[in-house]
Amino acid sequence: QVQLQESGPGLVKPSQTLSLTCTVSGGSISSGGYYWSWIRQHPGKGLEWIGYIYYSGSTYYNPSLKSRVTISVDTSKNQFSLKLSSVTAADTAVYYCARGGRYCSGGSCRPNWFDPWGQGTLVTVSS
Amino acid sequence: EIVLTQSPGTLSLSPGERATLSCRASQSVSSSYLAWYQQKPGQAPRLLIYGASSRATGIPDRFSGSGSGTDFTLTISRLEPEDFAVYYCQQYGSSSITFGQGTRLEIK
Questions:
Q1: B61 contacts B6 by C-beta, under 8 angstroms
Q2: Given an 8 Å threshold on Cβ–Cβ distance, is B97 in contact with A46?
Q3: Selected residue of A4, A45, A47 to mutate for chain B interface (largest B Cβ count, 10 A)
Q4: How many CB atoms lie within 10 A of CB A71?
Q5: pLDDT tens across A30-56, in order?
Q6: Neighbour-count burial of B96, counting CB atoms closer than 10 A to its CB (0-12 exposed, 13-18 middle, 19+ buried)
């Protein structure tokens, strides 16, 4: 079955860029039919969707983070990545990657529910 | 953005009891595009329900979802010890995906 695994630095300094990669195994990103997403969870808090990418490279970001987020895909490595710029302590969170199914309605397509998820990786923003 | 409000914040019940969790949307969720997840400490969320009422693969039938429009419910018919966790709803009916703030189901 498809498995996802996040990787990247666990500590990032304020004002720098957070960079994480999600490696997908057991399935190919380029086969289509799914959106690949990043979701985060602040310590002891709820879930916040960050954005998603399709294998073609099309993306959609949470409007509240859009100015700082870039999600990219490398189909040759079966990976997708997150970059979050100008981080502050408020970006300290567990970051999850997840697969979202694709559905189309009214001429637009977007992800539906998320399954499976990676195990998550804690990123702390601190000097 | 569709805001999802879950209630109660914490629910204290005993094994064997019935749990009813609510998720209310600030505007109608089109086509019942709503999912439920269970999260245990130190783990990633696990998909339970999609399309408001369809159980995900491998989810026991004591879990059921219902609702439409702005009001959705997750029901656990008879609580097992492993069901005590935090539950989140998520809507995917709008371009911006949002989650509820969660309901903590604890052992009474």
A1: no
A2: no
A3: A47
A4: 22
A5: 998 999 999 999 999 999 999 999 999
A6: middle
